[in-house]
Amino acid sequence: MLQDFLTRAFWFLLLLALQVLVFNHIHIAGYATPMPYFYLLLILPNHTARWVYVALGFLLGLTVDVFSSTIGEAAATTTFIGLITPPVLNLFTPADQRDDEFAPSVRTMKWGTFLRYATLITLVHTTLFFCLENFSFFHPLTLLLNIVGSTLLTLIFIAATERVRLSRSPR
Description:
By secondary structure, the chain is mainly alpha-helical.
């Protein structure tokens, strides 16, 4: 129990530091910014209480907002992601593992299923984030470029992180 808490705290601090110190300063062509700080919500075990997803999402988003000088966009977006992650995870959970407790990863879900799960959550996250940030649909092409570019960069980071986790975990 304590080890799980320390592992989650490590992920929280690592993702927060990466987002604030590195990823917030990456703007490819002025449109694409990776936002993988919600990865922590993607890898929570499937039997985690829904309120934990929501509270952790809010806390993570609020912390990103404080250090990024955004006005609640990350908190609102990540709270919503915390709300929808458990039902979306149930859609992608293999039938033979629905009753067992498992942590979503490439090892437990295989690459294709995990990437579909991560893509759906990432697409919802970036769409909501940029709609809240722009609060306007006067430049739909710019909004679309922001959403698609940021989704792709975030998915690249998530896939790279999963690859590292897969190579480090015991077989």
